[in-house]
Amino acid sequence: MWRFIDVDKVDGAYSTALFQSIGHHVGLGTSDETILFWRVTDPALYLGYHQCVEDEVHEAYCQANNIDIIRRILGGGCGYCDNDQILFAVIGTSGGIIPTNVQEAYKKVLSGVVSALSILGLEGEFDQTRNGVFVGGRKISGNAQGRFDGSVMVNGSFLLDFDFETMDQVLKHPTKNLKPHVKTARQGMITLSDLMELPDLNEIKQALRAGFEDALRIGTYDGQVSEAEVNMAQELTPLYKSRDWTYRMDDKRKKRQKVK
Amino acid sequence: MVLEDYLKGIHKSKGGIIRSFLIVENGLILDISFSGDFFMFPEDAIDLIIARLYGTEATEEAVLYAVKEVYKSEDILSPGTTPEDFMTSIMQAIGGK
Question: Concatenated DSSP letters for A179-226?
């Protein structure tokens, strides 16, 4: 049985620390494989491991509007998140149910999002070139993957509603990773509220949980974050809040560009 | 050496964008960094690729050989992004492609 945890609203920096901590403990074998759901308390921008802030983000807008920029331990592109998204991490052990092949891992885990849409009466499809789930050619779930400390992790978002206007202000390239013909994020993305009258949040979460169970052919039990996981997450959170971590790629570049 | 001296390349691989910033002198890569939205497992293996490229001849063959060497020794996985993509980004910076 896998563990299911819904921490609901948490701080963006803490969320990155938390999924890293859970990944570490799952990899160690001291925690069960886990499906984690959360939402961000306040809007936040998750930056990919290798990205430079200055290439991707309108920093002044973020600062003026208290939008945290958080570099995650996973690669890929950046994503603007607000509390109208369910964010998830599907965390297994290396060599376990989640396939070793990276594309196969996306395919298997994200078929859970497709299943969830089906439970809600909607038809979605996994787009393997963009590692996302689309409905009618528009993205409803963007995703990233990580492998560390013996764990394999597929993370993603599931859009219930979305503030496209703010996303356009925050990101320098808001249409990146959408379909090629798309000119605005609004054209290329879709939310659950565009497709149906939004059900109760718990009903949506239940559909997503059942979708992952179906995709991975697993059962889940209601679990909690362990004390060891909380402790590690709390220790990591200051790192994720630190300027040095957030700007590490920018700093590396600037350091090189100084007069030698 | 000042900011303007850095050569900048950008290449979109299937797995994401690779930006490269480098200094070439006397045909050798003296300094280099990468950024972008590509995936690499382990993620910090990029630092080993960078370290391996210091002092490498700035040719397609030498760069590709160096990147492939690190991929092999570190068992790197980078879905949709290959050693050839890193080489292409670098060669774009150099202006050779």
Answer: -TT--SHHHHB--HHHHS----HHHHHHHHHHHHHHHHT--EEE----
What does the alpha-carbon distance between residue B36 and residue A193 come to, in Å, rounded to a whole number? 32
Residues of chain B scoring pLDDT < 50: 1-3, 97
The Cα–Cα gap between B19 and B90 comes to 8
The DSSP annotation for B36-59 comes to ES---BSTTHHHHHHHHHTT-BSS
| Angstrom distance (rounded) from CA B59 to CA B65 | 10
Domains of chain B: 3-94 (3.30.390.50)
The answer to whether residue A256 scores a pLDDT higher than 80 is no
Residue A21 structural domain:
2-257
Q: Are A238 and A37 a contacting pair, CB within 8 Å?
A: no
- Kindly list the residues from chain B whose CB atom is less than 8 angstroms away from the CB atom of residue A49: 43
Q: Which residues contact A20 (CB under 8 A, 6 or more apart)?
A: A73, A148, A232, A233, A236
Instruction: Specify which residues A88 forms β-bridges with.
Output: A37, A156
Total structural domains within chain A: 1
Q: How many Cβ contacts (< 8 angstroms) between chains A and B?
A: 69
- The CA distance from A190 to A168, in Å, is 15
The residue ranges of DSSP E strands in chain B, in sequence order, are 7-13, 16-25, 28-36
Residue A186 above 70 pLDDT?
Answer: yes
Which of the four pLDDT bands, split at 50, 70 and 90, describes residue A113?
A: very high
Q: Give residue B44's pLDDT.
A: 86
- Given the cut 0.90, state whether the ipTM is greater than it: no
Which residue, among A256, A258, A259, A260, would best test binding to B if mutated, counting the most B CBs under 10 Å from its CB? A256
Task: Please give the model's pTM, rounded to 2 decimal places.
Answer: 0.91
> Is the CB of residue B11 less than 8 Å from the CB of residue B87?
no
Question: Best residue in B12, B30, B38, B39 to probe A by mutation, most A CBs within 10 Å?
Answer: B39
